Amino acid sequence: MLELAPAKVNLFLKVIAKRQDGYHEIATLFEKIALFDEIKAFPSNSIDIECTNPDIPTDKKSLSYRTIKSIKDKYGVKKGIKVCIKKNIPVASGLGGGSSDAAAIISLACKIWKLRLSIQEKINIGKELGSDIPFFLANTSYAIGSGKGDIINPIKSKKKIWHLIVNPPIKLLSKDIYELYSADRSLGLTIKPTVDTILPPNLNIDRLKVLTTLLHNDLEKVILAKEPIIRNAKEGLSSFTRGVLVSGSGPSLFAVFETRKEASTVKKQCLQRFQEAQGWRIFVVRTC
Q1: Among 60, 82, 117, 283, which is most buried by a count of CB atoms within 10 Å?
Q2: Domain check: are 149 and 174 in the same one?
Q3: Of these residues, 14, 18, 37, 132, which one is catalytic?
């Protein structure tokens, strides 16, 4: 069985407060994009994980293994599963590849083991494993994420946005970036303002001009200060187009466009500056 695991960008991200459990309360606007990892799964007598990217762990401590083990333990499954991951989404890039892979594995395991779980039951499994996983399990292209990002409020919109994604040749870990953000600011434990006042559930994102005014990421300032290569990349990309933002905890940047032609034109301009031979990766993708 094959499942495509999409990437995501955060069109908006505000850190509201630091929680007592060590995580951060956030308000974010998620968007799924058509950059996919390919996940194949086969019946097996044990848990076996393979990945085309050697940087991705596949042992018992890996997210993929823990995802499978969680389902087996929760539902008393005796059989195993073999999972093969073809990585196309850059690792530790702010595009949610690991979380999306875990969501795809949950769906595949349920199919192979014939577990008839609802979307909410799958989301509940995902919540225990990672903050972004519930979004990838929700049947929506856009959603407001609250709590740790794991409380999902889908947004009904058929709007398709084109993006140019620029991924620098470095990796950033979410945990490190949030710690830097906390160290730079005094975050209380009282959640003010509420998520609904920041991103109302009836948010209309069908007009690109409205959407571009919404683009924001609280983490971007500390990311740009920490990594000059990202700051320089944003300045370079911004010279070609407007609406450029770091996705999530970085390091990937994205820009928004109305058409594929516009995004492809800017990609051609960027290729001289952000060369693949130096480890840069550039994608033109749209909402999925």
Answers
A1: 283
A2: no
A3: 132
